[in-house]
Specification:
By secondary structure, the protein is of the alpha/beta class. The chain has a single domain, classed as Alpha/Beta hydrolase fold, catalytic domain (Rossmann fold, 3-Layer(aba) Sandwich), CATH 3.40.50.1820. 33% of the residues lie in helices and 27% in strands. The chain has a nine-stranded mixed beta sheet with strand order 1-2-3-5-4-6-7-8-9, with helices on both faces. Helix 1 links the parallel strand 4 and strand 5. The two termini are 26 Å apart. The mean pLDDT is 95.
Length: 264
């Protein structure tokens, strides 16, 4: 990725939430355009830089947290441990519909670049240890996170919630795609998470899946287990695709705390 273009950051407002400060901001750079985000940081400056985490949300048009607010409470909690978080607002396919393999491949690549620019933003901050970065992504956010880590060596690992192995697994059933099905799948195959996840090893991954996921078949877990390698851990939880269970949140926190501990 070309990181030669300077990030432009525009702060929209700041609030305090417990032990955290939440900055509502927009950052931009060529060619990614503008990205809305929350920057969540500790209220008090620490003696040494903390870890940095980029969070990327899921898509549910009917859920109040199908946007950058999904992980806000978790990021606020992490700030109490010195972590600085960046919660990104997705664009594709949240606000741009899939249409054809060539156009969708460009959109996916742009979205991955936005996530990596978020890593740039965190890594450049004086309160972040650039050697202690991680990513958390749910649903489409998890699929994009896999692609970002496969291309970017900086994150030490990631938590991936309920990803699909292929973009076509989502786009073909739920959007109107006129392109021939086989051609569409062939065109997006280089961007399919299951094709790229193996490049992340030996860095650590935690996959979180639901026991009763309406959208993902149980075989999805087996595909990712085989493709990701031995440094990936898979866990299942009660409930559905939203994975809103305490055990999943607790496991994310424990995984990140261990992964990003100073000196590891």
């Amino acid at each position: 990725m070309d990181r030669g273009s300077e990030l432009r950051i525009d702060a929209k407002g700041t609030t305090e939430r417990g032990s955290a400060v939440v900055d509502d901001l927009v950052f931009a750079a060529d060619p990614i355009g503008e990205v809305e985000a929350f920057l969540v940081r500790p209220v008090e400056s620490l003696r040494r830089p903390g870890a940095g985490v980029v969070w990327w949300h899921w898509l549910d048009s009917e859920a109040p947290d199908g946007n950058r607010t999904e992980f806000l409470e978790e990021a606020v909690g992490q700030a109490g441990e010195g972590t600085v978080s960046l919660l990104l607002q997705g664009r594709f396919p949240w606000h741009v519909d899939p249409s054809a393999s060539s156009a969708d491949a460009r959109q996916i690549a742009d979205e991955v670049l936005r996530l990596r620019r978020g890593l740039d933003l965190l890594a450049a901050r004086p309160d972040v240890d650039a050697g202690r970065l991680a990513v958390v992504g749910h649903d489409f956010g998890g699929m994009l996170a896999i692609l970002a880590l496969a291309a970017d060596p900086r994150p030490k690992g990631a938590v991936i919630l309920a990803p699909a192995p292929r973009w076509g697994d989502w786009f073909l059933p739920f959007w109107r795609i006129e392109e021939d099905r086989i051609e569409y799948l062939r065109g997006l195959r280089p961007f399919d998470p299951v094709e790229r996840v193996g490049a992340i090893a030996p860095r650590q991954l935690l996959f979180q899946f639901a026991e009763h996921d309406f959208y993902l078949a149980p075989m999805v877990e087996l595909e990712f287990r085989r493709a990701a390698g031995e440094t990936a851990e898979l866990k299942r939880y009660p409930g559905g695709h939203d994975l809103k269970v305490d055990a999943a949140r607790d496991d994310r926190r424990a995984f990140l705390s261990h992964l990003l501990a100073p000196g590891r």
